[in-house]
Each structure stands twice: as structure tokens, then as C-alpha cells.
Specification:
286 residues, mainly alpha, 0% strand
Length: 286
């Protein structure tokens, strides 16, 4: 008679269940290749800041140019003012607080669209977890954002407008924005491999999305109906929180972001699930 087999170890059974969860294998792969990821991020930052004639100045020119243009057009030409604030720096701070996180979001999204296509040769020749590519992209863009944002804080301190310790409230906003950006970016990046029109559609949509987000204008000047419509835009509340922290020095009401957190988590799950489902077919399409 054959002896009954011993019951499986609880730790092994638990590990098996965890690995069956959506995205668990992706997280494990990124962790196992963390040295590769950190090396690639360092290489990207080095290429961005050190291997150019003007170094880090190039990373500042684009946001600085946008802020200067909108400040001149709206604050000087159109005499735009923020209701209830008679501070000559208020509108510029309001613009910076909105444009910097917006550019971070759009950088992650637009680069994610072509991250698999741009690395087609690498994917075909080298064996490594493909999910590390958008992670490297996200981390590189985050380091760039932190550098630019830190310089902005130094400028605020120089003009006597530093918000104080409440600036740490930016951290959970950034984490929430990261989840939203990478979830949406991975999903769109996978779809763009099979349907190349996705990149063109997203490029046009982002331009409309910018003007549907209160970055260069305040929701106070809008009608109740317009404010209700903009409330469906997830970036309205996020950008508004950045502006509130940096302009008024007050922390946002975190309870208002529960649906944002749920939506961001759902996007991450959907994006990783789509990647895991279609990653095997992507190489054939590249």
C-alpha cells in the first residue's frame, strides 16, 4: 500500500496563491532584476544630465519655457489673477504647481506608448523581464521630476514663499500619480504595439486633456456646470492639490482621493494583466 503523501507546506501553498495574483509575477521579476533596473535608470539619468553640453539645463528649459509663455500671456497680456489672492507671485506659483506634475504625467504616458517599440531590438535579442522597461521609464522620469521640483522649491524659498513642512503632502500625491501614470502607460503601450494609431490618438487627447485641467485657469471662474464636468477629470483634483499645497500652504482633504486611489489601483491591475496576457505576442508584432 502506498503511503499517503504529506500535505503541502502552508508556506508553499501561500506562495503559490500569491504568485497566482495578477501582477505578482511582474513584481517578482522586477525585484529579481532590481540591479538591472537601477543600472538602467542611472544610465538614463547620466545620458540626460551629464552627456550634453549644457547638462541639467536642458531638463529645465521645457517647463521654464511653458511657464514663461503662460505667465506672459495670461498674467501680463490678459491680466489674469487668482480670486482672493493679491500676491504678485501667486499666479506664477499656481502655474508652476500645475505644469510640473502635468509634464511629469505626460512624459510617462507619451514615453510608455513607444517603450516596447523603441526597444524592439533589445526584446528580440536579450532575455530579460519585459515589464522592467516601463518601470525603468517611470523611475527615470520620477528622478527628473524630483530634481526639477526641488529646484522650484529652492526658488520658492528664495522669494519667501516656501510652504513649510506641508510640502511633504506632495509625496502621497506623487505616489498616486505614479500609479495612475504607469497603469495607463503600460496598457496604452501594449495596445500601441498592435494598433499603432493609439499613439496618435493619445497625442491629440493629451492636448485636449491639458485644457480640460485647471492648470492655467482657476475653477473659481467657471460655472457650476463646468466645475461639475471637470470633476470627472482625475487630474483636476490632483493638480488642484499640488496648487493648494504650494500656494496656500495647506494640506488637501485626503478623503476626497479615495476614488482616485481605487481607479489608479484598477489601472495598474488592468495594465499589468494586459501585459501578461499579450507579452508573448508582442515580440512577433514588433
Amino acid at each position: 500500500m502506498t503511503a499517503p503523501s504529506a500535505p503541502s507546506s502552508p508556506s508553499i501553498a501561500t506562495s503559490s496563491r500569491l504568485l497566482a495574483l495578477p501582477g505578482a509575477l511582474a513584481v517578482r521579476a522586477v525585484w529579481q532584476y532590481r540591479g538591472f533596473v537601477s543600472g538602467m535608470v542611472a544610465r538614463e539619468i547620466q545620458a540626460r544630465y551629464l552627456q550634453s553640453l549644457f547638462g541639467s539645463a536642458w531638463a529645465l528649459l521645457n517647463p521654464a519655457a511653458m511657464i514663461a509663455i503662460y505667465t506672459v500671456i495670461f498674467a501680463q497680456v490678459m491680466q489674469a489673477r487668482l480670486p482672493g489672492l493679491d500676491d504678485r507671485f501667486a499666479y506664477s506659483i499656481y502655474l508652476c504647481a500645475g505644469i510640473l506634475p502635468w509634464m511629469y504625467l505626460t512624459e510617462v504616458l507619451t514615453r510608455s506608448l513607444t517603450v516596447f517599440i523603441d526597444n524592439a531590438a533589445l526584446l528580440k535579442k536579450v532575455s530579460f523581464p519585459r515589464i522592467t522597461l516601463p518601470v525603468i521609464l517611470l523611475l527615470g522620469s520620477t528622478v527628473n521630476f524630483v530634481i526639477i521640483f526641488s529646484i522650484f522649491l529652492v526658488v520658492l524659498a528664495a522669494v519667501g514663499r516656501f510652504p513649510g513642512m506641508v510640502v511633504l503632502a506632495v509625496i502621497p500625491l506623487l505616489v498616486l500619480q505614479q500609479a495612475f501614470a504607469i497603469g495607463c502607460g503600460v496598457l496604452l503601450g501594449v495596445l500601441n504595439v498592435f494598433f499603432r494609431d493609439v499613439a496618435q490618438i493619445v497625442g491629440v487627447a493629451v492636448q485636449f486633456w491639458f485644457w480640460l485641467t485647471p492648470i492655467v485657469y482657476s475653477t473659481v471662474i467657471l460655472s457650476d456646470r463646468a466645475r461639475a464636468l471637470l470633476a470627472w477629470n482625475p487630474m483636476t483634483k490632483l493638480i488642484g492639490a499640488y496648487q493648494q499645497i504650494l500656494l496656500t500652504g495647506t494640506s488637501p482633504a485626503w478623503s476626497e482621493f479615495r476614488w482616485h486611489a481605487i481607479a489608479a489601483a484598477a489601472l495598474v491591475v488592468i495594465g499589468v494583466a494586459a501585459f501578461e496576457r499579450l507579452s508573448g505576442e508582442m515580440v512577433d508584432e514588433l
